[in-house]
Amino acid sequence: MRIDEPTPYLIEAKPAMEWLLGRPVQKVSPRYAHALFQRIFAARLADWAEGRGRVGTEWRFWLAPPGEIERYLVPDVAYLSYDRIGPTERDAAEEPHVAPDVAVEIRSPDDRNVHVLHKVDVYLRAGTLLVVLIDPIERTCVLHDVERQTVFGDRGRLEHPALPGFSLELGDPFGALDA
Predict the structure, then answer these.
(1) Tens digit of each residue's pLDDT (9 = 90 or more) over 62-120
(2) What CATH number has the domain bearing residue 138?
(3) Is residue 128 part of a domain?
(4) Does residue 37 sit within a domain?
(5) Model pTM score
(6) What gap in Å lies between CA 7 and CA 1, rounded to an integer?
(7) In a 10 Å sphere around its CB, with 0-12 CB exposed, 13-18 middle and 19+ buried, how is residue 3 labelled?
(8) Taking Cα atoms as reference points, which of 152, 100, 162, 164 lies closest to residue 127?
(9) Count of the separate structural domains present in the chain
């Protein structure tokens, strides 16, 4: 445990709270673009994840990067494989004490960049295989894994080894903003 961070305590609020940079921070209240991307990504991941794992939105995870305290983060969309928490382990899946395999974070205009980058860092150091960072305003999708970050525009295709067989043309969700 690092001694420069206080032990996180759970604060129940709506929108949800997260533990960022040593203190509780309330998630930014999303707007339509955020809600649209959250719905699209959750639906597409849930279809793909059938029989492989769970997909949820605004799902609290307790994460502990090596040598650090456990703290909670609430990804906009998360995929947790049955390899990490089996299909019959419903209680353990309610507030997992493992990192999601994939975390999707959708930027809101009021998000602080330092908080977003901190979350990406914590996810990856805690064992998340892929963090997908969507910016509806800039129309970008950045895939973060432990080896690299890959930036796509609204014409790219989201594919990654952490999601074998999953593919999403990014023009679909970005195009939905124009509808």
Answers:
(1) 999 999 888 888 899 999 999 999 999 999 999 999 999 999 999 888 788 888 999 99
(2) 3.90.1570.10
(3) yes
(4) yes
(5) 0.86
(6) 9
(7) exposed
(8) 100
(9) 1
Residue type, 164: P
Name the one residue in this structure whose structure tokens are 């963090």.
131
CA end-to-end distance (rounded Å), the chain: 49
How far is 100 from 103, CA to CA, in rounded Å?
A: 6
Q: Give a yes or no: residue 12 inside a domain.
A: no
130-139 burial string, b = 16+ CB within 10 Å, else e? bbbbbbbeeb
Give me the domain span that covers residue 93. Answer: 30-176
Going 167 to 161 to 50 to 135, the CA torsion angle's sign is negative
Task: Give the integer Cα–Cα distance in Å for 179 and 175.
Answer: 7
- For residue 104, tell me if it sits in a domain: yes
What tokens appear for 110 in the block?
């009021």
Helix (H) / strand (E) element for 151: namely strand 149-152
Nearest CA among 49, 58, 51 for reference residue 18 = 58
Q: What does the pLDDT look like over 133-173, one tens digit per residue? A: 999 989 999 999 999 999 998 888 999 999 999 999 988 88
Strands 102-106 and 130-135, bridge-based pairing: parallel
For the record, the structure tokens of 91 come out as 């209680």
